[in-house]
Amino acid sequence: MKWVFATGNKHKVQEIRPLLPAGMELLSLRDIGCDEDLPETGSTIAANSLEKAVYVREKYGYPCFAEDSGLVVPAIDGEPGVYSARYAGTGDAGDNIIKLLARMRGVDDRRAYFVTVFTLAGDGSLEQFEGRADGEITLIPAGEGGFGYDPVFRPKGHDRTFAEMLPDEKREISHRSKAFAQLLIRLKSFENSNKL
Ligand code: ITT
Predict the structure, then answer these.
(1) Sign of torsion, CA 90 134 64 16?
(2) Nearest CA among 163, 131, 160 for reference residue 149
(3) DSSP 3-state assignment of 41?
(4) Which atom of ligand 1 is nearest to the CA of 45?
(5) How does pLDDT run across 123-165, given as a tens digit for each residue?
(6) Alpha helices in the chain (DSSP H)
(7) Is the pLDDT score of 58 beyond 70?
Protein backbone atom coordinates (compact mmCIF):
# COMPACT_ATOMS: atom_id res chain seq x y z
CA MET A 1 0.00 0.00 0.00
CA LYS A 2 1.29 3.47 -0.87
CA TRP A 3 0.82 6.44 1.42
CA VAL A 4 1.29 10.08 0.52
CA PHE A 5 3.44 12.00 3.00
CA ALA A 6 2.03 15.47 2.42
CA THR A 7 5.05 17.65 3.07
CA GLY A 8 7.24 19.99 1.08
CA ASN A 9 10.08 19.56 3.58
CA LYS A 10 12.65 17.04 2.35
CA HIS A 11 14.26 16.76 5.79
CA LYS A 12 11.04 15.40 7.23
CA VAL A 13 10.94 12.74 4.53
CA GLN A 14 14.61 11.83 5.12
CA GLU A 15 13.95 11.34 8.81
CA ILE A 16 10.87 9.17 8.28
CA ARG A 17 11.85 6.98 5.35
CA PRO A 18 14.28 4.68 7.25
CA LEU A 19 11.52 3.99 9.79
CA LEU A 20 9.22 2.42 7.19
CA PRO A 21 8.85 -1.35 7.25
CA ALA A 22 9.81 -3.30 4.13
CA GLY A 23 7.08 -3.16 1.52
CA MET A 24 5.54 0.11 2.70
CA GLU A 25 6.07 2.89 0.16
CA LEU A 26 5.74 6.62 0.45
CA LEU A 27 4.56 8.90 -2.31
CA SER A 28 5.65 12.52 -2.28
CA LEU A 29 3.53 15.52 -3.17
CA ARG A 30 5.38 15.68 -6.47
CA ASP A 31 4.44 12.05 -7.20
CA ILE A 32 0.75 12.99 -7.06
CA GLY A 33 1.19 16.17 -9.13
CA CYS A 34 1.06 18.63 -6.24
CA ASP A 35 3.65 21.40 -6.41
CA GLU A 36 1.85 24.03 -4.36
CA ASP A 37 2.59 25.17 -0.80
CA LEU A 38 0.09 23.56 1.52
CA PRO A 39 -2.16 25.90 3.51
CA GLU A 40 -1.19 26.50 7.16
CA THR A 41 -3.63 29.06 8.51
CA GLY A 42 -4.25 27.55 11.95
CA SER A 43 -3.18 28.98 15.27
CA THR A 44 -1.88 25.67 16.64
CA ILE A 45 0.47 22.97 15.43
CA ALA A 46 -2.35 20.39 15.62
CA ALA A 47 -4.68 22.60 13.55
CA ASN A 48 -2.07 23.13 10.84
CA SER A 49 -1.29 19.44 10.71
CA LEU A 50 -4.99 18.68 10.22
CA GLU A 51 -5.36 21.40 7.60
CA LYS A 52 -2.50 20.07 5.45
CA ALA A 53 -3.71 16.46 5.54
CA VAL A 54 -7.34 17.33 4.81
CA TYR A 55 -6.34 19.65 1.98
CA VAL A 56 -4.37 16.96 0.17
CA ARG A 57 -6.95 14.26 0.88
CA GLU A 58 -9.79 16.38 -0.51
CA LYS A 59 -8.07 18.10 -3.41
CA TYR A 60 -5.94 15.22 -4.70
CA GLY A 61 -8.01 12.26 -3.53
CA TYR A 62 -5.21 10.25 -1.94
CA PRO A 63 -5.19 8.80 1.56
CA CYS A 64 -2.33 10.62 3.17
CA PHE A 65 -0.65 11.86 6.29
CA ALA A 66 0.86 15.26 7.04
CA GLU A 67 2.72 16.65 9.99
CA ASP A 68 3.23 20.04 11.54
CA SER A 69 6.03 20.58 14.00
CA GLY A 70 7.74 23.31 15.92
CA LEU A 71 10.03 24.34 18.73
CA VAL A 72 8.44 25.66 21.92
CA VAL A 73 10.36 27.72 24.49
CA PRO A 74 8.12 28.30 27.52
CA ALA A 75 10.28 31.13 28.98
CA ILE A 76 9.55 33.30 25.93
CA ASP A 77 5.82 32.66 25.80
CA GLY A 78 6.09 29.49 23.74
CA GLU A 79 7.91 31.12 20.81
CA PRO A 80 8.61 30.25 18.06
CA GLY A 81 5.88 27.59 18.35
CA VAL A 82 3.45 27.47 15.45
CA TYR A 83 5.57 30.10 13.69
CA SER A 84 8.78 28.04 13.84
CA ALA A 85 9.31 27.81 10.06
CA ARG A 86 8.71 31.55 9.49
CA TYR A 87 9.90 32.99 12.83
CA ALA A 88 12.31 35.56 11.35
CA GLY A 89 10.07 36.24 8.37
CA THR A 90 12.58 35.08 5.75
CA GLY A 91 12.00 31.32 5.82
CA ASP A 92 15.74 30.87 6.42
CA ALA A 93 16.78 28.52 9.23
CA GLY A 94 19.90 30.57 10.07
CA ASP A 95 17.85 33.75 10.44
CA ASN A 96 15.38 31.92 12.69
CA ILE A 97 18.24 30.80 14.95
CA ILE A 98 19.69 34.32 15.13
CA LYS A 99 16.30 35.68 16.13
CA LEU A 100 15.78 32.98 18.75
CA LEU A 101 19.20 33.47 20.35
CA ALA A 102 18.69 37.24 20.41
CA ARG A 103 15.27 36.81 22.01
CA MET A 104 16.82 34.55 24.66
CA ARG A 105 19.68 36.85 25.58
CA GLY A 106 19.68 37.05 29.39
CA VAL A 107 17.02 34.35 29.76
CA ASP A 108 18.20 31.78 32.32
CA ASP A 109 15.47 29.21 31.83
CA ARG A 110 16.49 27.70 28.49
CA ARG A 111 14.22 24.66 28.60
CA ALA A 112 12.53 23.92 25.29
CA TYR A 113 10.80 21.13 23.45
CA PHE A 114 10.12 20.08 19.90
CA VAL A 115 6.67 18.80 19.10
CA THR A 116 5.31 17.03 16.04
CA VAL A 117 1.68 16.25 15.30
CA PHE A 118 0.95 13.83 12.47
CA THR A 119 -2.54 13.73 11.00
CA LEU A 120 -3.65 10.61 9.19
CA ALA A 121 -6.40 11.25 6.66
CA GLY A 122 -7.42 7.76 5.63
CA ASP A 123 -10.60 6.73 3.89
CA GLY A 124 -13.15 8.64 5.91
CA SER A 125 -11.10 8.82 9.10
CA LEU A 126 -8.95 11.50 10.72
CA GLU A 127 -6.55 10.72 13.52
CA GLN A 128 -3.69 12.61 15.16
CA PHE A 129 -0.49 11.40 16.81
CA GLU A 130 1.84 13.59 18.85
CA GLY A 131 5.49 13.25 19.80
CA ARG A 132 7.68 15.48 21.93
CA ALA A 133 11.41 15.81 22.62
CA ASP A 134 12.54 17.81 25.65
CA GLY A 135 15.82 19.64 25.92
CA GLU A 136 17.30 23.10 26.09
CA ILE A 137 18.46 25.94 23.88
CA THR A 138 22.23 26.27 23.73
CA LEU A 139 24.04 29.60 23.96
CA ILE A 140 25.61 29.21 20.52
CA PRO A 141 24.86 26.96 17.51
CA ALA A 142 26.83 23.71 17.16
CA GLY A 143 26.84 21.01 14.49
CA GLU A 144 26.17 20.68 10.79
CA GLY A 145 23.56 17.92 10.65
CA GLY A 146 19.79 17.95 10.79
CA PHE A 147 17.79 21.05 9.85
CA GLY A 148 15.92 23.99 11.30
CA TYR A 149 16.74 24.67 14.94
CA ASP A 150 18.82 21.49 15.40
CA PRO A 151 22.12 23.41 15.95
CA VAL A 152 20.71 25.13 19.06
CA PHE A 153 18.66 22.28 20.54
CA ARG A 154 20.39 19.95 23.00
CA PRO A 155 18.09 17.07 23.96
CA LYS A 156 17.74 16.23 27.65
CA GLY A 157 20.34 13.75 28.91
CA HIS A 158 22.74 14.47 26.03
CA ASP A 159 25.79 16.69 25.68
CA ARG A 160 25.44 17.37 21.96
CA THR A 161 22.87 19.21 19.88
CA PHE A 162 20.63 17.41 17.40
CA ALA A 163 22.83 18.88 14.66
CA GLU A 164 25.93 17.25 16.20
CA MET A 165 24.29 13.82 16.18
CA LEU A 166 24.26 11.24 13.41
CA PRO A 167 20.88 10.96 11.68
CA ASP A 168 20.17 7.65 13.44
CA GLU A 169 20.98 9.12 16.86
CA LYS A 170 18.47 11.92 16.34
CA ARG A 171 15.97 9.41 14.94
CA GLU A 172 16.21 7.35 18.17
CA ILE A 173 14.95 10.17 20.36
CA SER A 174 13.22 12.74 18.20
CA HIS A 175 9.71 14.13 18.51
CA ARG A 176 9.08 13.12 14.89
CA SER A 177 10.08 9.47 15.45
CA LYS A 178 7.94 9.23 18.57
CA ALA A 179 4.88 10.55 16.77
CA PHE A 180 5.61 8.44 13.71
CA ALA A 181 5.89 5.25 15.80
CA GLN A 182 2.24 5.72 16.83
CA LEU A 183 1.18 6.56 13.29
CA LEU A 184 2.94 3.47 11.98
CA ILE A 185 0.84 1.21 14.18
CA ARG A 186 -2.28 2.63 12.48
CA LEU A 187 -0.77 2.41 9.00
CA LYS A 188 0.01 -1.25 9.60
CA SER A 189 -3.52 -1.93 10.79
CA PHE A 190 -4.85 -0.33 7.57
CA GLU A 191 -2.54 -2.56 5.55
CA ASN A 192 -3.63 -5.67 7.41
CA SER A 193 -7.34 -4.94 7.02
CA ASN A 194 -6.76 -4.36 3.27
CA LYS A 195 -5.28 -7.82 2.97
CA LEU A 196 -8.39 -9.52 4.45
P1 ITT B 1 5.58 21.26 5.44
O2 ITT B 1 4.56 22.18 6.07
O3 ITT B 1 5.51 21.25 3.96
O4 ITT B 1 5.51 19.87 6.04
P5 ITT B 1 7.51 23.01 6.77
O6 ITT B 1 9.00 23.08 6.80
O7 ITT B 1 6.74 24.25 6.41
O8 ITT B 1 7.06 21.79 5.80
P9 ITT B 1 6.32 23.11 9.40
O10 ITT B 1 5.32 24.11 8.97
O11 ITT B 1 5.83 21.93 10.19
O12 ITT B 1 7.06 22.46 8.15
O13 ITT B 1 7.47 23.87 10.17
C14 ITT B 1 8.33 23.15 10.94
C15 ITT B 1 9.49 24.03 11.36
O16 ITT B 1 9.81 23.74 12.72
C17 ITT B 1 10.71 23.70 10.55
O18 ITT B 1 10.81 24.50 9.39
C19 ITT B 1 11.82 23.95 11.55
O20 ITT B 1 12.10 25.34 11.61
C21 ITT B 1 11.18 23.55 12.86
N22 ITT B 1 11.41 22.12 13.15
C23 ITT B 1 10.50 21.12 13.15
N24 ITT B 1 11.05 19.94 13.41
C25 ITT B 1 12.36 20.18 13.56
C26 ITT B 1 13.47 19.35 13.82
O27 ITT B 1 13.36 18.04 13.94
N28 ITT B 1 14.67 19.93 13.91
C29 ITT B 1 14.81 21.26 13.78
N30 ITT B 1 13.82 22.12 13.51
C31 ITT B 1 12.59 21.58 13.40
Answers:
(1) positive
(2) 163
(3) coil
(4) 11
(5) 788 999 999 999 999 999 999 999 999 999 999 999 999 999 9
(6) 10-16, 45-60, 93-103, 167-173, 175-195
(7) yes
Residues lining ligand 1, CB < 6 A? Answer: 7-9, 12, 38, 40, 68-71, 84-85, 93, 96, 114, 146-150, 162, 174, 176
**pTM higher than 0.85, yes or no?**
yes
Q: How many CB atoms lie within 10 A of CB 135?
A: 21
Q: Which residues contact 105 (CB under 8 A, 6 or more apart)?
A: none
Task: Check if 68 is active-site.
Answer: yes
b/e sequence 163-176, b meaning 16+ C-beta within 10 Å: bbbeeeebbebbbb
